[in-house]
Amino acid sequence: MDDLSGFGSVVLQLIERPDQDALLRISPASQAVVSWNTTAPVGALSLIVHRGDATTSVALPYVRWSPDERRSLDGADSSTRIEVDVVRSDVPFAAIGVRSSVELDAVAVSVPPARDGRDGRTHTTTLDVPALSQYVPAYPAERGWCSATSLAMLLRFHGVMVDVATVAHGVYDASYAGTGNWSFNAAYAGMVGLRGVVAHLRGIDHVAAFIDAGLPVGISVSWSDGELPGAPLEHSDGHLLVVRGVDGAHVAVNDPAHPSVATRYPRAALDALFTAAGGVAYLIAPPKRTAELVALANGGAR
């Protein structure tokens, strides 16, 4: 294994055009999310985790995909395991190797950041993000399409005119039996020509930096009864919505479960729920803005 010391507080590492192999270095962590972009219609990825005790995992099967099916593979060894879209390890690691059966446009790994160093943004512009509901009349039995719908809104903001059902089909994980696999959502954005990355952000103030840069962000949250005033659901174990603006007291969102979609939530409440859920976000941008996206995620751009 290469020397991984002194790599700083990198929480998102991304390599463009890595061919079929990449070594991604990050701050030491015990969990991570790996995302990738490619236009290849058929492929598979495995992960090699470089742990802090100088051991390296076996090649852990991660995902495979084809036009007919996408499937997470949940590879594991004695110390490290993949749970759908999250790599978890009993021994902290500082790098993940990615092996792909096809050429990749980009591959990234993100780990939870430290909860300090916030930049204190209090106000942003409000972005005009197309509003879509996760409740599609043609599919009345489908009630859990919040992730696919949030992604569809982000894609439409960037000019890719897709409908919710098409995105839901494109991100469906046959193993997980749902559309909420974070990495598959990022991969779909890559398939349609955008840069899609799963990243861990520090909180709503960190999200605000992306809004200031003209980039709406999809965020994952969960809450219990009474924790999110104005929410359309009493509670949720996991929900995706799009942040499109921030001020000192409120966050403007497109919540695909809300009757009006476009609404706002108390900033303090949403920030607490977002950070408690891990700060996981969908970052979508044109490929030419990849370096900016990574700098913003790592706190290196204003």
Instruction: Indicate the low-confidence ranges by residue numbers.
Output: 1-8
What oligomeric state is this?
Answer: single chain
**What is the CA–CA distance across the termini?**
34 Å
Number of strands: 12
CATH architecture of the largest domain: Alpha-Beta Complex
Beta-strand portion reads 35-45%
Top-tier CATH class of the largest domain:
Alpha Beta
The secondary-structure element order is EEEEEEHHHEHEEEEHEH
Q: What is the approximate shape? A: globular
Name its key features.
12 strands, 2 domains, Cathepsin B, Chain A, six-stranded antiparallel β-sheet, 302 residues, Hypothetical Protein Tm1070, Chain: A
Provide structural commentary.
The chain has 302 residues and is α+β, with helices and mostly antiparallel strands. It folds into two domains: 99 residues, Hypothetical Protein Tm1070, Chain: A; 152 residues, Cathepsin B, Chain A (Alpha-Beta Complex). 19% of the residues lie in helices and 37% in strands. The strands form two sheets. Strands 1, 2, 3, 4, 5 and 6 form a six-stranded antiparallel beta sheet that branches. Helix 1 packs across helix 2 and helix 1 runs parallel beside helix 3. It is globular, with a radius of gyration of 18 Å.
